[in-house]
Amino acid sequence: MSLSSPILSKPVLEDLPYVEAVLNYLTPMAEKPVNYTYEPPPGVPRQNGVYEAHKLPIRNARAIAQDLSLEREGFAYAAHKSAVRDFYDEDEVRRVYYPEAEKLLADVTGAKKVLVFDHNVRNIERAKQGAKEPVKRVHNDFTAKSGYSRARAVLTAFGTDDADELLQHRFSVVNVWRPIAKPVQESPLAVCDAQSIAPQDLVAGDLVYRDRVGETYAITYNPTHRWFYFPQLQPNEALFIKCFDSAEDGRARFAAHTAFDDPTSPPDAPPRQSIELRALVFYAN
């Protein structure tokens, strides 16, 4: 991964192989989108947004993997083998994978401090055991507002003594995403180049939990969006997706992403098994 490589030129992008697939975007709406993470009270819809399908090219990013940058496109790639034996073991994930990911992110970003604060495991066949299913709506995990509020809540929960000092300097929230079993064939992850997203494409919505209300971005369609994926992503490969950056100086701040139905996926492909964890990344300056 490179932090300083030039912006990808149009001819390079046009030469990349791609699949055409449907991505689900929020239909513009007057009210604020609301999405419940649990079954809401009777008469209240699980979500009030309406999503519209757009068939788009999703480019194979493998040929440009080493040129991608969290600072520019808002997502990046690294080969990384984890020592975790069972990603469905909550204790092992926190004990082994969290420190692994913190070190990996520090190496990738040059950050002075990295703090992993939560994770999700996705496997539709294990939904009854607490695993989640892939999200097939274009979204971003945090907003310009909730990036700050979640960071302060996490630092408070961890009892961080220098929270006020840390939040006065640049920080980001980065999602570390990887397969945890076989190579991904079903519901792969597509990531949108942050440079191609206009501010007006980002729609803040409430994400309602039983004990709190978060805020995420839904995304409205824009034909300028540039989408990428890594076909057949392996368990020894990791993606980094920037979901928030406090810097407003032209760096990537929000890299929208979504699972999608790959038209080249075999009909008997096993369900995608993956883990994503979120981390606060604090920079030296």
Structure description:
- The chain is an alpha+beta fold and 285 residues long.
- The chain has one domain: Jelly Rolls, CATH 2.60.120.
- It contains four helices and 14 strands.
- The strands form three sheets. It has a five-stranded mixed beta sheet with strand order 1-3-11-8-13, with no helix packed on it. A five-stranded antiparallel beta sheet has the order 4-12-7-14-5, with helices on both faces.
- The longest helix has 20 residues, at 90-109.
- It is globular and about 50 Å long.
The profile of the biggest β sheet is: 5 strands, mixed
Please compute the radius of gyration using only Cα atoms: 18 Å
According to CATH, what is the topology? Jelly Rolls
The geometry reads as globular
Report the strand count.
14
CATH architecture: Sandwich
Q: What strand line-up does the widest sheet have?
A: 1-3-11-8-13
How many domain units? 1
Average pLDDT value?
94
What structural class do the secondary elements suggest? alpha+beta
Q: Which sequence of SSEs, written as H and E, runs from N to C?
A: HEEEEHEEHHEEEEEEEE
Query: CATH class, please?
Result: Mainly Beta
Helix content: 10-25%
Notable traits:
disordered N terminus, Jelly Rolls, five-stranded mixed sheet, 285 residues, 4 helices, alpha+beta, five-stranded antiparallel sheet
